Amino acid sequence: KQYLNQALTLDPDNIDANYFYGKFLLEQGDHQAALPYLKKAAALPPRPQSLTADRFRHDEVVQLLNGGETPE
């Protein structure tokens, strides 16, 4: 949790930091707190150097928002 908070402090618009912090909060059972981070991760544009990875991350976020499950 400490490292995720630090990553968000350093770069609040980082797709991965928002996704992983939101996912962490979901796993802790704090669904309300997770939503803003997951929604932000879904709304952020893909980074030019990471288009494929960011598109995949976006799909994971949408799946979490829709059903709380990650793809297998």
Can you walk through the features of this model?
72% of the residues lie in helices and 0% in strands. With 72 residues, the chain is mainly α. Helix 1 (2-10) packs antiparallel against helix 2, helix 2 runs parallel beside helix 4 and helix 3 runs antiparallel to helix 4 (51-67). The longest helix is centred in the last third of the chain and has 17 residues, at 51-67. The model has no long low-confidence stretch (mean pLDDT 87). It holds the Pfam family TPR_19.
Secondary-structure topology with pairs:
Blueprint: H1 2-10, H2 15-27, H3 31-43, H4 51-67
Key terms:
mainly alpha; globular; 72 residues
Largest sheet: none
Total number of beta strands: 0
Give the N-terminus to C-terminus distance in angstroms.
24 Å
Mean pLDDT reading: 87
Structurally, how many domains make up the residues? 1
Please report which band the strand proportion falls in: under 5%, 5-15%, 15-25%, 25-35%, 35-45% or over 45%. under 5%
Shape category: globular
Number of helices: 4
Structural class: mainly alpha
> What sequence of helices (H) and strands (E) makes up the elements?
HHHH
- DSSP helix fraction: over 70%
Radius of gyration: 11 Å
User: Spans with pLDDT under 50 lasting ≥5 residues?
Assistant: none
